[in-house]
Each structure stands twice: as structure tokens, then as C-alpha cells.
Design a protein that fits this description.
The protein is an alpha+beta fold. It is built from 3 helices and 26 strands.
């Protein structure tokens, strides 16, 4: 009897281990957010609705999930997908709702009202040199203002930004005047964060205000690299914080010199003499200077199209002989060792 009771206790113990108690478990319901562009759409404009940035933020800061999206555009039409486009046929204010379901069987929804105005022949356009940069990098904001597709010269465009945080307000970046072809351009160095960048033409006595926006993500290098700047066009910038390896492509006008300036936190455990810089796979010289709080790394090169890799923890590429040479040496060493062993055994047999 005692053995039977003990066996039952062990069985129930194993069952409880295999199926842990969920009394205190909490499942967080994901409440989606979305952005849309243009911010002041007109009848006939293609309006883009995007929840991808929200999904990326959720999966980076919570337990990763797989989401499905259902959209209600408020005019009796629907769509599915993380990013969708829609065109409104009539002016008015529409309540756009997105609902998500996830692989845990939970979900949520959010709603936003957008105003669709009458179609106007005056349209403002905007584009960024990149939609994702690191802190310290500049971006070029450019676009044009058109009237029935023809550039409008000498018009003022107000550029502003807003972060994706609660109660955020629009902050002016610059006011720029269009050239003879209706084009405008400016350079901006944003801080870390997720932004909407908006271009606005204030309108006149004939046509109302019109604006358009795009999204921008600004990533951080972490605590090690505090500033990065260059006179080259930088693309493919990536920093691996675990290995402290920085890589990017740099391009500039042939016949001129390019530079990259990197400010590093003055970590007492960091050895600046261990830095290795490779330009198109070949090591190059660099300059390192010390200030009271930082290390200043300067890299100079002749402009072309280059791929640059900086190893802050020493050269990551192993200093080794070619594979074929290593194989040949290994075979030779093994052969000599085998021959020596044979000679040794023959001598001892005698």
C-alpha cells in the first residue's frame, strides 16, 4: 500500500512538472499602432498605412509574436496585411481601424481619424537619403512642389519632425525655398528615435495647405561610439556591439579626399592601440587622439567607392598562412613524424 501511494505521489509530481500552474500567468494583449502618409491626403491620392514599425518595436521589446492584420478604412472597404494602400473617392473624415491577431490567440485594435480633402492641383513631395541611420549621421531631405505636375519655383516649404511618443509635437527642422524647377533640399542630423518627417506648403488665397510625410528610424551605436561623421556618402553602416566591429561603404567624388571621424567613449579597459582599419580588405593607417573624456579616431582616404571595416578589439581577420600552405606543412610534419617513428621502432627491435 505504501508503495502504491508513493508511486501515485511520484506520478502526480511528474504531471505537475510537465504542466506547470498558470494561475499567475499573464498574457499581454498587443495593441497595434500605425502611421499613414500623406498626412493631408486628397481625393484620389494613394494613402499608405503602415504598422510594420510597430511590429518591429513590439518584437524588440516584448516576447516576439506572429501577427495578422485586418484594416477597416471607414468607407466600407477593407484590406489585410502589415502595410496597405487605399484611395478615397470622396472628401471627408474617416475612422481607420486596424485589428491584429497573434499566434497566442490574443489581439487588439486601434483607430485613428484621418481627413481627406478635395483634390488640388498643388502637390508637395518628400524623400530622404535613407530611411534608417545611426546617431551622428546626417540625412538629406529633398523633394519638390508641383502644380499639375509642373515645378513651382520660389515657394517656401516648411520641414518638421515628430517622434513616436505620447503627446509629441511637431518641431520645425528648416524652411527652404524651391528653386527654378520647384525642387528643395536640406541636411539634418537627427537624434536617436523614430520620427515622422513632414514637408508642408502653407497654401495661398487660391489653394489650401498641403503636406506629406515619411518615416525615419535613427539607431544608436550604444555607449561605445558616441559620434560618427564623414564627408563621404555613407551606406550600409552597421555596428556589431558584441564584437565591436564597424563596417560601411564610403563614396565620394574621384580626385578628392574622404574622411571619417569617430568619437569613442574613454573606457579605461579599452586599448586604442588595438584598433585595426581595413579599406577594401587591406589595412590602412589611422590617427587616434585623446581628449579628457573621449578617443578621437580619424580615417582618411582618396575618394572612390570603398568598403571600410574597423575592428576596435584588434584585427578580427586571423593572421594565417594560406590554407594550401598550411595543408602542405601539415602533411610534411606528419610524414616526418611517421618516418621517425618507423626508424625508432626498427632500432628497438634490433
Amino acid at each position: 500500500m505504501k508503495k502504491t501511494a508513493l508511486a501515485l505521489i511520484m506520478v502526480f509530481s511528474l504531471i505537475s512538472l510537465a504542466h506547470p500552474s498558470t494561475v499567475n500567468a499573464q498574457i499581454v494583449h498587443a495593441t497595434p499602432s500605425f502611421v499613414y502618409s500623406p498626412l493631408t491626403p486628397r481625393v484620389g491620392d494613394v494613402v499608405s498605412f503602415d504598422a510594420l514599425w510597430w511590429e518591429q518595436y513590439w518584437n524588440e521589446n516584448h516576447e516576439p509574436r506572429t501577427f495578422t492584420y485586418s484594416w477597416n478604412f471607414g468607407d466600407g472597404t477593407f484590406a489585410t496585411g502589415v502595410t496597405v494602400n487605399h484611395t478615397y473617392a470622396e472628401p471627408g473624415t474617416y475612422a481607420v481601424c486596424v485589428t491584429v491577431d497573434d499566434n497566442l490567440g490574443t489581439g487588439g485594435s486601434s483607430e485613428m481619424e484621418i481627413e481627406v480633402r478635395e483634390k488640388t492641383p498643388v502637390t508637395v513631395h518628400i524623400s530622404l537619403s535613407s530611411d534608417s541611420v545611426y546617431t551622428g549621421q546626417e540625412i538629406t531631405i529633398s523633394g519638390n512642389l508641383t502644380y499639375n505636375g509642373i515645378g513651382v519655383p520660389n515657394a517656401w516649404i516648411v520641414l518638421s519632425s515628430k517622434t513616436y511618443i505620447e503627446d509629441a509635437i511637431w518641431n520645425e527642422i528648416a524652411s527652404v525655398e524651391t528653386d527654378n524647377y520647384g525642387k528643395y533640399s536640406t541636411v539634418w542630423e537627427p537624434l536617436r528615435g523614430s520620427y515622422q518627417i513632414k514637408a508642408t506648403w502653407m497654401g495661398n488665397s487660391t489653394y489650401p495647405e498641403t503636406s506629406v510625410s515619411v518615416n525615419l528610424g535613427v539607431k544608436s551605436f550604444g555607449d561605445f561610439i558616441t559620434e560618427f561623421s564623414s564627408n563621404s556618402t555613407i551606406t550600409g553602416l552597421n555596428f556589431n556591439a558584441s564584437t565591436r566591429t564597424l563596417s560601411f561603404s564610403a563614396e565620394g567624388l574621384s580626385g578628392t579626399n574622404g574622411y571619417v571621424k569617430i568619437t569613442l567613449e574613454k573606457d579605461p579597459e579599452f586599448d586604442p592601440e588595438g584598433i585595426s582599419v581595413f579599406l577594401d580588405g587591406k589595412p590602412i593607417e589611422y590617427a587616434i587622439a585623446s581628449t579628457s573624456q573621449s578617443w578621437m579616431l580619424d580615417i582618411i582616404y582618396s575618394h572612390s567607392v570603398h568598403h571600410v571595416v574597423v575592428y576596435f578589439n584588434g584585427e578580427a581577420i586571423p593572421k594565417s598562412f594560406p590554407t594550401t600552405l598550411i595543408a602542405a606543412v601539415s602533411v610534411a610534419v606528419f610524414t616526418l613524424a611517421a618516418a621517425g617513428l618507423v626508424i625508432y621502432l626498427k632500432k628497438h627491435r634490433r
